[in-house]
Amino acid sequence: MAVAVRLGRFLPLGRSSAPAPRLPTCAAGSRGRCVPWRPRGSEVMGNPGAFKRSLLFSALSYLGFETYQVISQAAVVHAAAKVFRIEEILEQADYLYESGETEKLYQLLSQYKESEDAELLWRLARASRDIAQLSGTSEEEKKLLVYEALEYAKRALEKNESSFAAHKWYAICISDVGDYEGIKAKIANSYIIKEHFEKAIELNPKDATSVHLMGIWCYTFAEMPWYQRRIAKMLFAAPPSSTYEEALGYFHRAEQVDPNFYSKNLLLLGKTYLKLRNKKLAAFWLTKAKDYPAHTEEDKQVQTEAAQLLTGFSDKN
């Protein structure tokens, strides 16, 4: 950059920074007659030192212009290569995510943890959280990963506040951190979480996951234990609250946006109908959750829980 600035001082305005001198076509004689003008040697050369400096200035101007062009072209090529490289990494990351390769995905993205790209950072937050959720992850590692994920999501949001995914994963990660910071912090954070889920939906109404997560928020506060409600009322003038009906609306909306997109949405539709004492529809959605193809460890957990709830139906009947 310093080189470019210095060279800029010698850049010509076109090919020369000063207008070319106009040469006279005739000169006045002793009697005022116009006689052909013949330049003398001193007039041709003028000041020899000035002439040399003029040549040097012209050479430097041309050199400066050419160097500036080379530097500018190199910067453009470098920027394009950088964008292409990031796009390539994101494509690899999305492929690994869709394939359920959680650990490989985390290893790939961890190489770029110092990145300033919001798209890469929120994916890294997601990958960190997914590793934390694995059954083989120790409690100590899980806590570190949860806080690490929050940091990545926060940075992603700082880099691009118009990214619906950054809002979504920031809210998810704040929720995870609440498990380590007590009931007061968890309730206080719930307002922030809701705000970011709503913003994610506003930015992208077609993202079924954001709509689903808003449903989870409603479901969580609909089933909040009485003692937590009491604490919430003591701490906040207007504690967060919701209903199962509101949660159900979001789960159905998510399903309309993208049918069968997520095993847990199917499970929660079944569980919400159970809370509303509609066993017929509960059984319908729980069966769909049980039969959902298991691509991830979470899918397997959903299958198990759905099967257990359905078995509970049979036992009662």
Automatic annotation (TrEMBL):
Superkingdom of source: Eukaryota
* Keyword Repeat applies: yes
Q: Which Pfam families match?
A: RMD1-3 (PF21033)
Does the keyword tRNA-binding belong to this entry? no
> Which N-terminal residues, if any, form the signal peptide?
1-16
One of the entry's Gene Ontology molecular-function terms is: microtubule binding
Family the UniProt entry places it in = Belongs to the RMDN family.
Q: What is this protein called?
A: Regulator of microtubule dynamics protein 1
**Organism for this UniProt entry:** Camelus bactrianus (Bactrian camel)
- Tell me the classification of the organism that encodes this protein: Eukaryota, Metazoa, Chordata, Craniata, Vertebrata
